[in-house]
Fold this protein.
Amino acid sequence: MQPTKKQTTKILVGVIVALAVVLVALVVALVATPQETLTSHSAQAEVEAEEKALEEAEKEGYYDTDPIEVVQLTELIGCNLDQALERIGHGAEIDGESKLVAGGLTEVTVLLGEESATLDTGAALTYLYLDRSGRIVQASYRININDLSCASLPFDQIVNDADLIGRLLVGAGLSTYEPNPITAPAREKYALYDSSGKTTTEERYQFMGTGSDEAGTPFEWSVFLDYDYTQAIESNNLADTVRTVHVSINSVDS
């Protein structure tokens, strides 16, 4: 038996009323929800998102923003050779004979006896440059960076994302430096290729700028970053890439 038009109208009215009641109940429930609870859920979601991002970043080495531990080169400027060896520590000892270099400076190579002995496995070498009066006007530090948490990053990312250069400069004693931030140049400025023009054999670039230590003493700085793929190409294993960095601090009066 088909319902009459009057009955159908009553049914529709009843459905509309029921839906209205449900809607009102939902609105009341939302209004009654403490704002603190909503805020808590939002904050928790944000914390969880940050923790997840941190975990992902940690796998890539991006998370490490601490200064990279190197010799405090700024402290060596102005010292004589004996004072410099004492300040360097780490079992520092002179390696080989000193030699004259450009500018009339004397170059002295210093081995850090407590560190590894070869560049391929992480050697640390310090170079001191003395003027005619026997005072150090330039000091540099060279090390293999394969053991750093960010060493697996490509050349541009280790500069741009892991801030390798800036962290090295702070480790070397600079409290401020320019330019800041330090960014990698266009790839054509640092990538070298084999005769085919397809295989990258080396990526290298010298970054340069100025800075000062905590006392406000001005310095010039340079950092030479080098990714040498020679061994990796021979072994067909990217893990054999030799990554070295050479950071130098100069007296502006030298």
About this structure: Residues 116 and 146 are 13 Å apart (CA to CA).
